[in-house]
Specification:
Strand order of the largest sheet: 1-7-6-5
Structural class: alpha/beta
CATH class: Alpha Beta
Helix content: 40-55%
Shape: extended
CATH topology: CBS-domain
Number of domains: 1
CATH superfamily: CBS-domain
Strand content: 5-15%
Length: about 270
């Protein structure tokens, strides 16, 4: 169902698992490389000093090395600890749910559930229909930015999906989480503008939306399962937290329903407690 957690923070795509993995790997590689270089310098310093006519007694290189090494080691240890504790917590959660499901892996349980059983059907989605003005054909140019704030300020809603309507069909255009919406509002105010003076089209063309929310949505067909929806989220390069069910599973097909990461989590916990 819809994300009804009262103002629960959903996080940004930039903080997704892929981002954390890349950050951990980058920090580890640079730290390990620096330690390796420092070690080589200490080992070969006598030869370097002799070749450069440097008095070794005026530069206590070993003390410098011993002072820097614990700092870098602690840094690497902290990064790796964060990374593996996150993975371990996720694994423990899966094990608990599996045990509560009678030993059946969660993925198997999810594979047995059609997305149509869990999704929020199109007509029940709290949404924004994007409009255009007579002089501007950009979707959302006829919508005030305040419409986004109205959705996420409603009790129990932290996301604002946006659609374009063609006849009786709705087509997905974008979705914004409250963190991105409020960040954009802050940027607008810093520029001396009032948020009501900008349109949703302006928001969708902003750097903050493009960097933190664009292309962070997944799609499945009406014949898919919850396991398919979860996999699409995990495989999304931007760290998707929303899956829209369409007639064909393609982004340009009519929308039938909507599933969030919180819907899947709540379903998993509810079934584990049954």
């Amino acid at each position: 169902m819809t994300d009804t957690s009262s103002k629960a923070k959903t996080g940004d795509p930039g903080a997704s698992r892929e981002f954390r993995e890349k950050l951990s790997l980058t920090v580890f590689q640079w730290s390990f490389g620096f330690i390796a270089v420092m070690t080589l310098l200490v080992l070969f310093f006598p030869f370097i000093a002799k070749a450069a006519s440097i008095d070794e007694t005026t530069l206590n290189h070993k003390d410098i090395y011993m002072a820097v090494l614990p700092i870098l080691s602690g840094w690497v240890g902290g990064v790796l600890g964060f990374y593996f504790s996150d993975r371990a917590a996720e694994a423990r959660g899966e094990q608990i749910l599996q045990a509560q499901n009678g030993g059946i892996p969660l993925s198997e349980k999810l594979r047995q559930v059609p997305v149509t059983e869990v999704m929020v059907v199109r007509d029940r989605i709290k949404k924004i229909i994007l409009k255009t003005t007579d002089t501007d054909l950009r979707p959302g140019s006829g919508n005030n930015f305040s419409e986004l704030r109205d959705v996420v300020s409603s009790r129990g809603f932290t996301r604002a999906p946006m659609f374009v309507q063609k006849g009786a069909s709705l087509f997905f255009r974008a979705i914004a989480h409250e963190s991105v919406i409020y960040k954009y509002e802050s940027i607008i105010r810093d520029k001396g503008k009032h948020p009501d003076s900008v349109s949703i089209a302006d928001f969708l063309e902003s750097d903050i939306y493009r960097e933190r929310a664009a292309d962070s949505t997944a799609f499945v067909s009406q014949n898919a399962t919850l396991e398919d929806a979860k996999a699409r989220m995990q495989n999304n390069a931007r760290g998707a937290q929303d899956v829209f069910v369409t007639s064909t599973g393609e982004a340009n097909a009519p929308v039938i329903g909507w599933i969030t990461n919180m819907d899947i989590l709540r379903w998993s916990i509810a079934r584990a407690e049954d």
